[in-house]
Amino acid sequence: MVQHHPEIDLLTDFAAGSLAYGYSLCVAVHLESCAQCQQRVRELSALGGELLHELAPASVDMGSFDKLMAEIDNQPAPRSKPQIKPVPGVPRAMRKLAPAGLDALPWKRVTGSIQSADLPVGNAGSLVSLIRMAPGGTVGEHGHAGDELTVVLRGGFSDAEGVYLPGDFVALGEDHEHKPVAHHNEECICLTAQTGPIQFLGFWSRMLNPWLRLKEYETPR
């Protein structure tokens, strides 16, 4: 059962369609496992619809309306979209990003127990990637140079603040430091969206910081 959820402001922005793609992807993946947050998003969407309904209508020039309708009539008929087949272990929201499964992604080794795979999302407003920890592996104690959203896809991990299992959602800010450790019985895979690189704090781990800063980050819009 999912125990960790997005804050209401994230769900509100998701329902309004105003989240950057990387953040929206993380929320969407969480929603697939969380009936509680699905219901909240439905309620927020309904509330937004009621607020729009209560707004006073603005006058529209009929010439502009006729022009718009003519443009719609001249649009070519939409092509049928190819069906994307489900892939075991891949959330529905990620099927286009991992059509052959998570294991087929271009994983790169970061440490002896950690691998990462950047996802092909283009200008998503953040670096979107997967983190893979071997059983019992740890990312090492680190802070964050930006905000980070994390959703557990497989396995689980723990830190000083809790235990996180598939579907759990974690939002961390620049002032947060932690040391995630994967559970010993299986590997852990997490989806992350970051607006800045993590900053390792341990003496040896700090040597990874220059490599991490080579990645490109952009501020969500």
The largest β sheet comes out as: 6 strands, antiparallel
| CA distance, first residue to last residue | 32 Å
Task: Give the count of helical stretches.
Answer: 5
H-E order: HHHHEEEEEEEEEEEH
For the secondary structure, the number of strands is 11
Helical fraction: 25-40%
- The fraction of residues in strands falls at 15-25%
The unreliable regions are: 206-214, 216-221
Major sheet strand order: 1-2-3-10-5-8
Q: Shape, please?
A: globular
Mean pLDDT rating: 82
Radius of gyration over all CA atoms, rounded: 21 Å
Structural class: alpha+beta
Describe this structure in words.
The radius of gyration is 21 Å and the shape is globular. The protein is built from 5 helices and 11 strands, in the order ααααβββββββββββα. The two termini are 32 Å apart. Residues 206-214 and 216-221 have low confidence and may be disordered. 25% of the residues lie in helices and 21% in strands. It has a 6-stranded antiparallel beta sheet with strand order 1-2-3-10-5-8, with helices on one face. The chain has a 3-stranded antiparallel beta sheet with strand order 7-6-9, with no helix packed on it. With 221 residues, it is of the alpha+beta class.
